[in-house]
Structure formats: structure tokens, C-alpha cells
Amino acid sequence: MAQKGTGKTLEKLKNSVNDKKYYEAHQMYRTVARRYNKQEKYSNSIKLLHDGAVSLMEHKQSGSGSDLANYMMDTYILASLPVDEKALDRVIDILDLYPSTEVGRRSFLSKTFSWTQKYGDYSEGDPELHNYVGAMFYQEGQFSLAEEHLLVGTDDSATLLGELSYSWAQQDSNNGNGIYLARVVLQQLAMKSIRHATLTFNSFLKVANLSAQSEASFQYSPAGNTVQVSIYDDSWLNFSQLMLLTVQRDGAALFNQLKSTYGPMYLHQKGFDELIDDIGAAFFNIQKPKKQGNIMQDLMNSLFSGGGSPSGNAPRQLSGSPALGLD
């Protein structure tokens, strides 16, 4: 009987929307949902609010639709709703209809990720949702926001980050392409995600369509097989590649050699030295220098505050490729 009653209510409210009685419908959606919540009939409330948000947004009433969407997320949290495919699909339904200019979208996203962090399996929030939101921001040209979400997303996110890094670099005439790739790869390695760093690196090479200037030999271990490594005319690109290779072997000495060789380049970029220290600690148990504050958080705040260049100031691009010095 409850489901039948809910169905009749939905039909009545949809008719109000179709009749362009938007204010009346909006208020009724809220009133009925509030009553359901007081009765702890959260599934009924969620169904109602989802339907209302979608219906109003489809009729270009994004402000009213956004209000119901945010109320739906409040109800998710009130109901301690587990993160599952059905619950996430409702979120995606609404995000598909959200105008990028609607101010309520920011609050909706904040509540959504808070819900996935609290009731899901991932401390940073659901990776599939991060991938969707990151791709959404990328399509809108909001590269900084896109990068923030894609860094904690899926394999597809890592691949898209390679494309994003190249696209972002094309907007910056003062610096080479490689620095945009390097800051992503280094962050991924600082999070111990070799797989994602490799996917991003390869994706960047593919979209940039770069040709190697030469090759050099690299061994993953003193007794291991030798592989040929491409050398590019972008020092940042070579640095990223060598760091990727180094963390995959017992290479603390080589890691320190990379720091020495490329230090004059990366030390001019805010936050890069902290990332290198994080990588050394993560892969080679090299103790980090004692510093104040949360290093990774400070860097993320710097990276995602917007602006055209990775560090806020125009990074210095050094030409040529330093000697590899590989054994």
C-alpha cells in the first residue's frame, strides 16, 4: 500500500511539473519527502526526491532541481545508505542534467563524496564517481578540478590524466609539455600507484605523438635483463620516465642519483621536492626531512587552486637531457 501511495504522489507531482506549476511542485516534493523522513521511510523519500530533481531539471528548473538533489543527499546520509550501484546511478542521473553554471552543483558534489567516504569502501570517495566527475570537469575545461578527481579515480582516470596533462600544457606557451605530466606522475608515485603513473605516462606519449631523440640501456636489477629506454628532448619527460623505472627496482642509489641530476630543475617548482621525498620514503624507506604541516595536503591545495601553470609561477624549462647514468 505504501508503494502504491508513493506512486500516486509521484504521478500527481509529475503532472504539476508538466503543467509548469514548478514552485508548487517543488514545495510539495519537499513537504512529502520531509514527512517520509520523519517516519523513517527513507527509500520512499529518496525515490521522491530523485524523481523531483530529475523532472525539474529536465524542465530547465535547475535551482529547484538542485535543491531537491541536495536534499536527496542529505537523506542518503540520514539513512546511512550504503554505497552501491543503484545509489550511485541516482547521483549520475542528476549530474547528467546539472548545468555547469548551477551553484548548487558544488554542494551536491561535496555531499555526495562525503557520503561515499563515510559509507563506502574508499577513504577518498568512490573511484568510479571520481572518474565520472573528473571526466565531466575535463570536458568543461576545468582542468584543475578534473585533475583533483582523476588522481583518485580508476584506470580510465589515469589514462585520461595523460590526455589532460597534454591539453593543459597546450594552453601554456611559457613552459614545455613535460612539467604537466611530471607533476601528475610524481603525485601518483607518491601515492604508490605505479600502475596509474604508467598509464598516465603512456597516454601522454600517445596523445602528444612524441618521437624519441635517442635510446639508452636500463636494467631493473644488476643481474636483470637490459631494456632500451627512449630519450626525449624534454627533461621533465625523461625525469618522469626514469623515476617510473627506478621505483620498480631496488634502486635507492639510482633514486638519489636522479635527485642529484635533476635537482637543479625540480627544486625551482613549489612542492616538487616534497613529492620526491614522499616517493623516496614510499619505495626506498628513505627518511623524509622533518617539516611543518601536511606536505601532501599543502601540495594538493597548491595544485588545485587553479591557474594556468602547475606551480602558480611559470616553471623554468631546461633544454636538453641530463646524462642517464644508468648501470
TrEMBL record:
<dbReference type="Pfam" id="PF04190">
    <property type="entry name" value="GET4"/>
</dbReference>
<dbReference type="GO" id="GO:0005829">
    <property type="term" value="C:cytosol"/>
</dbReference>
<feature type="compositionally biased region" description="Polar residues">
    <location>
        <begin position="311"/>
        <end position="320"/>
    </location>
</feature>
<dbReference type="GO" id="GO:0045048">
    <property type="term" value="P:protein insertion into ER membrane"/>
</dbReference>
<dbReference type="InterPro" id="IPR011990">
    <property type="entry name" value="TPR-like_helical_dom_sf"/>
</dbReference>
<keyword id="KW-0963">Cytoplasm</keyword>
<keyword id="KW-0813">Transport</keyword>
<protein>
    <recommendedName>
        <fullName>DUF410 domain-containing protein</fullName>
    </recommendedName>
</protein>
<feature type="region of interest" description="Disordered">
    <location>
        <begin position="306"/>
        <end position="327"/>
    </location>
</feature>
<comment type="similarity">
    <text>Belongs to the GET4 family.</text>
</comment>
<dbReference type="InterPro" id="IPR007317">
    <property type="entry name" value="GET4"/>
</dbReference>
